[in-house]
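Example 3.2
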Amino acid sequence: MIGNKYNKIKAYTDGSCWNGHDFDRVTAMVGVALMIDLEDNLLDYVIHASNHGSSTRAEMIAVLSAIGYAILTGYEEIEIYTDSKYTIKTFNNYIKDKNHDLTLRYISLRKKIKIDMLYVNRNSGDTYNEMADEMAGIVRKNMDEFLAKNVKIPIHKYMVNETSRPTERRD
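Structure, written as tokens:
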């Protein structure tokens, strides 16, 4: 257990997607989760980067990554702040859409931890929301450079496996 003083953690999440100049192919998709303790201190971060997906999928994966982090580090409850109303609506109402695989994963994870998702306005001046947005944008904008140079993107060891459940990376 990492710094789990209260059994509850907060997360600010954001996703970013870019297709370059080829609208038929996504070249970068990034989900970011900033993990915050109850005293508003930044504890850690999770980055999930991929070369396929959509902006909606990026937002959803950011939320799932935050949940995965909370479960793997022993928290019983997570409060997630996101600027994606669609993600909140889809996950909380179990809407079946083209990202249904992620909704099913959310339903499965919800059995392991209490989850509260709250909407935060984009560009509202909320420090951690702005930080998550900026971090997602920086990683997304530099993905082509990282991939071209075969540089590893610094991804935290806690992330959500694309095909199953949260896993701990072994770097």
